[in-house]
Amino acid sequence: MVRVGLSGCGAVSQLYYGPALRRLAGEGCLQLAAVFDPNPAPAAAIAGPNPAATCARFEDLLGLGLDLLIVASPPPLHAPQTIAALQAGVAVHCEKPLALSVDEGVRMLDAAYLARRPLSVAMMRRSFPAVRAIGALLTSQAIGPVRSVEVFEGGPFRWPVASPAYFTRAQSGGGVLRDMGPHALDLLSGWLGGPQLNSYQDDAMGGVEANCRLQLTYGAVQCAIRMSRDWARPNRYLFRGASGWISWIPYEPDRLEIALGDGSCGVLTLHKRNPHDATALGEPEGDFATAFADHLREVVAGLAAPTLATRRSLGLDTLELIDRCYAERRPMEESWRESPALWACAS
């Protein structure tokens, strides 16, 4: 039985890791052996009816013979906790963002190599059937050569943060780009290859950004990305090709829309395959929470035949791009702030 520990019992653990771990424990896939959080109340809630130890200190986790540690602590603790666990001989699955900078990420990768232990990052969208289908469709040029990509992710901020410190660089390393960017930029690199950064704008104004805009080029493909914490707009990835388009909502693991040059248009619903029948279709993949549990199941199964992490598997290329965006940031163009006429009306 794989013995799993959890460090950090905040919102992401309460909403996703806790339910996923309970589900996988019920399947006999793993045992939740111990949890840690400096606040004992959420730690006890995650441990719940499971025979899991509630550790008073992070260091106590590392002496319990764990096979895997999930690091879901605040981002400033990702690197030190991950490195300490690897040095103790424990494999690590780290919540995104992996680190607050590419330099921290490199130190984590180096620690995994020295310890010869697996290290993975929670880029769970990589395993979505829709994401894999988009990759296959783009590779086969089902919509012809891709000409442009438009991405919008975000909306009014509703994540149940525990403290206003979440909205500081010290706690989160940035704003919406550091939060949502790892997922979006990682997927785009997986589909299209390495990007060139043309421009980056945000509204940080000395704090952390609530809105940002990126212009990237992937070979000949122009890509416009907008992320927001206050703009209510449909989330979508839209790929325009020479003979059609693909549209995907990033929180739907198993569905996408596609239109082809012959005028046909429809919704694809992707299904699990029966492992005993390569031609049979089973049940749909389901919702986001189910996809989260499926991703964690893959991480646990991978311990049986471990592979060492790489820069790409950890998304260090994406961290490097985010660091570059922040280094080259320019103020976002905002008409309400720049127009004297609008200021006069407001006053």
- Contiguous helical run count: 12
The CATH superfamily name of the largest domain is: Dihydrodipicolinate Reductase, domain 2
End-to-end separation in angstroms reads 66 Å
Shape assignment? globular
- Spatial arrangement of strands, main beta sheet: 14-13-12-11-7-10-9-8-17
Overall helicity: 25-40%
CATH overall fold name of the largest domain: Dihydrodipicolinate Reductase, domain 2
Mean pLDDT over all positions: 90
What amount of the residues lies in strands?
A: 25-35%
Radius of gyration over C-alpha positions, nearest whole angstrom: 21 Å
Instruction: Write the CATH architecture name of the largest domain.
Output: 2-Layer Sandwich
Give a short account of the largest sheet: 9 strands, mixed
Task: Quickly count the domains.
Answer: 2
Helix/sheet category: alpha/beta
Number of strands: 17
Order of helices and strands: EHEHEHEHEHEHEHHEEEEEEEEEHHEHH
Low-confidence stretches: 272-285
CATH class of the largest domain: Alpha Beta
How would you summarize what this structure contains?
The protein has 12 helices and 17 strands.
